[in-house]
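The instructor's notes for this session suggest beginning with a concrete chain rather than abstract definitions. Hand out the sequence below and ask the class to guess, before any prediction is shown, which regions might be ordered.
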Amino acid sequence: MTSDRNMEKDSRVMKTSAPSVSQINAEYVTQLANKYWAPQVKKKLPFDAQIIEDVYQNEILKSKFAIRKIMLLEFSQYLENYLWVNYTPESSTNSYLMSICCIINEKFRENVPAWEVFKKAPEHFPQFFKCVMEACLSGEQFGLSLREQTILLLFLDHCFNSLEVDLIREQVQRLVSLPMWMCLIPTRLQQELKKVPKLQKFWNLIKKNYEKMDAKEREQAKKERTFLAELIKKFLLVLRSIPALGSVSLEKVHYCERFIEFMIDLEALLPTRRWFNTVQNDAHLVVNCQLSHLVQREEEGHLFCQLLDMLKFYTGFEINDQTGNALTEKEMTTLHYDRITSLQRAAFAHFPELNDFALSNVAAVDTRESLTKQFGHLSSNTLHRVSAYLCLLPELPDNEETTYDKEFLLELLVSHHKRRISQIEQLNQMPLYPTEKIIWDENIVPTEYYSGEGCLALPKLNLQFLTLHDYLLRNFNLFRLESTYEIRQDIEDIVLRMKPWQSEYGGVVFGGWARMAQTISSFSIVEVAKPNIGENWPARVRADVTINLNVRDQIKNEWEGLRKHDVCFLITVRPNLLYGTRFDRRQPFVDQAGLVYVRGCEVQGMLDDKGRVIEEGPEPKPKLKGDARTFRVWLDPNQYQQDMTNSIQNREEDPYEVFNIIMRRKPKENNFKAVLETIRNLMNTECVVPDWLHDIILGYGDPGSAHYSKMPNQISSLDFNDTFLSIEHLKSCFPAHTVKVTEEDPARQVPPFRIQFPVQATKGKKRKTDEGDMPDEEDLTLVVEPHMIPNRGPYPYNQPKRNTIQFTPTQIEAIRAGMQPGLTMVVGPPGTGKTDVAVQIISNLYHNFPEQRTLIVTHSNQALNQLFEKIMALDIDERHLLRMGHGEEELETEKDFSRYGRVNYVLSRRLELLQEVARLQESLGVPGDVSYTCETAGHFYLYQVMSRWEEYMSKVKVKPGREVRTEDVAAHFPFHKYFANAPQPVFKGQTYQEDMDIAEGCYRHIRKIFTQLEEFRAFELLRSGLDRSKYLLVKEAKIIAMTCTHAALKRHDLVDLGFKYDNILMEEAAQILEIETFIPLLLQNPEDGYSRLKRWIMIGDHHQLPPVIKNMAFQKYSNMEQSLFTRFVRLGVPTVDLDAQGRARASLCNLYNWRYKQLGNLPHVQLLPEFQAPNPGFTYDFQLVNVEDFNGVGESEPNPYFYQNLAEAEYSVALYMYMRLLGYPGERISILTTYNGQKHLIRDVINQRCANNPFFGQPNKVTTVDRFQGQQNDYIILSLVRTKAVGHLRDVRRLVVAMSRARLGLYIFARVSLFQNCYELTPAFSQLTARPLQLHIRPHEYYTSTEQRSTQPDKVAKDMPEMANLVYNMYMHMIQSTQQCRQQDLLDPPRQVPETKVAMEVDDGPETQSESEQQRDAEVGEDQAQTERKHEPSEEDEEKEGHAKMPEHPGRDSDSGESDKDEEP
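After discussion, reveal the predicted structure:
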């Protein structure tokens, strides 16, 4: 649990920020909305500007900008339907302006699209933006409070972070372009212009244009150019007004924090930084902040200091602002030396009092201490003159005193010239494990209750990055903090479980226990190795931890099973609570538990009796006596160094002597250290990304530059192998092209096809244009050449496996792009065959470029296994496939594709082939043992087989002047005996050409045996399994698959092995974290400074759910959930959008296809009977069913964010039971929900009502929508849970996933009044609400029946109790009819029973009953049959059991009292 004070505070925020439907209806805002702007209201009142005033003054200002009020306004579509549609520059008032900004900020807080409304009506936006600028600068004159100006500042920040929106970019660019340098002091301006010669020319042009403007234009231009400089001045005024002591206005502190956040965002993007960095440097923003009182205030200034550190980092970032090139370590050092030496020259020439400084060497004077010492004794005026000489301040006239105080002048000179620690050095000295200082710092690792209001000291992942170093560093920090958050949850959980109390003697007693933690009996440091050369921290620190495992065997085995490199945490607690005190999870955790230290460590291994580490390997581990176990662990050398220095210098205690708990974590969640080490290693290497990708990854340049059409090495002729099923299929896939087939005979126009594409020449275009339109005609011609796959041998298994899928034109474009070099992005909506496209690309690359190797990366093991199963169905030799990681166990095949599985395959294959060689040797009558090794087999091939083949060819080859008869081909063939076991006759004897082709095929079959043996020869030389598996990975495998996590964990090992690959294909790319997508690009060392990567294919769907980030702050504030795929799409990288789905009924597809460009249906969705027939028992194929409160309760929240809704859970399960009673198979139905709490509730209801009853059983899955992404089922029952606020379904991506899981039927339970008003969800909910909102069912139909639908009327279930009743009655009915059937079966032989006989006894008529009987026999299954056999003698028993199985349903309440009588058995 998290520190509870915050939890309480924040959950209160969350509670108020989630108004219920009844509150919404009672609100003044809602009443206004219903009159003026609500979308569902037909007759609206005319626009009244006073309404905007009233709403702002009374609802927003009075409530102090309460989230709940703004949320209501935003949700009611106030901006879309009232504010913006009626906005004109004339009508703009403070309230109007502020209302719009508040709602845009709210949209960003909730992560919903914010700019759509402006894009639709952009004409007034420029004017609106000008008003915002003026209000930011002169808020006080406009009567705006600082709180309101902070909101404007946040709005500006959102604008600068949305540069991909053209409308916003046009306005924002004017504020940060070169003309803003008019704010610099003249000397600084000249100095800057001299640095880049071209700039002087541009500057003169700018001045010329400025002078040409009329007065009004000039004033506007000046406002824009000086805006940011003026804003900095304004901020400094606010900052200086904060006193050093006494009370301080929090409004001022928040304003300052938001302003620094805004500055960081400007500095962290190249387009905004380029000219602005010089302006902020000239305004000495950082120096002023550093000297402010706010920094010295411990409590109020804590976050401000952290933000200021980030700003310092970015203002001094290692980049050339103008060119955008990253600066190397050497260049940074040169810059530093230039600065110091220019200061020394100035001192020598003009300031005799600084002679000592001028003549010193640089290293002696470039630290903060020495600079302060050298300059500290100078007067303020002298310091001003030195600064002015360096163009840092304006000139000081001769007889005037400086207005700057000495402290400022000194800090300015010192901070400008002090030696900076290189960023990479800082990173290398940083401990990778979090300590207690970071883990519980709310500004860095916020609690899970972060509401999105405040700003945080966290890096953001937006569209662009400064350099690759910046890119990796931001990801490194965020990944580290996200892991820290999870570690915090684990520590709090285990410590509270262990209940540390203070004993009466002052020590610690543990009153509880935890599975994942043990108390430490002893801890000792056993080795501190000397530092490596050039480093000041130990090379290695090892310690021994002893624990007493007096626990259950299972838990003991878990501890003994700790593997090498597993991460554990060492914890010190010194509780203040006396023995037996209760722990209150709502109170702050650290004080309560008395937590003092947390340090990470990495397991090396467990020690044996002799004190040696037990190595991991195939041999069994030794059995140890007793319960004491000692583990040797590696500590973080950087952390150890810092701790030791601290304890010696500050005389503090040594943390390594007081640890009393060791904690382990689940292996799946414990790989953070390996990933962080990988990122750090990448930052230390010359990180080589292919040139064609570099700018796109950073977000600059032409986003389409890596598309195959713009790549210089485009390939003109490609073999599409088995992609096309026929020539007609090929022609239909290129409708815009003219297809020329080289083969005239239609009978021979069969696949495989090689296609010659017209390559667009990127040079020499000018000449072509003179020839008119001719080249265009030429450009669209494809030359198609059918070619024969050479005969592979006479056996049936020699025939290649063929693709059977008829790809659509868009899929073909995706396959074509994937085969060409460059970056290919495929957007695959649900059911559009993403995996089939991926597999075909892999197959085509394998056949076109046999020497290249392809790496497949996916997010989940499940996706990797699906891909692999499809790859195996194509014509790819399985010896070239390799699957890495732990998921290969789940592959649904007998074949093992893991490294050791492949080694075993190769070894067994070698034996099979050597047996074939022995058979060949015997058939040829060659003496000796040639099939002993691969080497002897090679000699045999060379001297015996090839010679015979060559002799044979010399006899049967057609030569001038020699006729060869057809029968000669078979007569002279030397391998008849060997091929005696092939289908006979081997030779058809009809034409010479055909028989010759067969003979060559036979020889190819033999030759392949020996080429494979030649490849496997290395396995005879390499003896250990590890060496063999490495050889396989580096040399033999052509298609290597792994998950992104495995790639991040094992990068170091792969690079060391010399792993190489040419192509990467990523599936589920929109679900992979940015950094985990990037690491697989760099799993190999560059060759001669260049990456050998040729293709990068990413397949994903950014309209579905993003990667899972557990902490809301990192997810929303830092945008960590943005995958690299999504970022590329936002940047405008060209994508191939698959446009035909074959999964769901067309009507179901309409619920989500509005989110995609042009998503249609494949023909079979309209033609196949399963998509045409209605769902038996249901009137509609999809329905939204309204669920009102049950017993006065809607959603409930037993724990924060753990939402449940009993009425919906019961309704969902009742519907599932109804479907099962009609004969629907359980495995065809899945129950989904949007919250974990509801998932657990539904599982409970299922377990209670259905699980042990063979009539019902379990559905295929009960899980959350997020977990079900990437899966599908025929029928989906969906519960949306919420009744007070829409919650996270507002994220349209979640809606798309929820709507697209069902193939044939989707039934949704929800509070309709809540969801139908939600702007983002309108396209789906307008279709859902067009159908009745009560469940329409047809209980007389059965799943197995095939007759036409009868005209019998529907039955309408009004609510959940009624549905539960209905199911109960159906169930009782079925039990009785089952018994009657059984009695009948006992009396007569079954075949003699007329169907009607059983049916007479039932009210529903003969037809229904016979169906029920069929359905019972079909559905009840084996276990039911067994229970029936057991109970045959006593029907009474059977009846009782049936009743016991059907629990009381929730329909028995006051509403349905009268129905109790019917339910009595």
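Then share the key points. The two ends are 49 Å apart (CA to CA). Confidence is low (pLDDT under 50) at residues 1-17, 763-777, 1390-1465.
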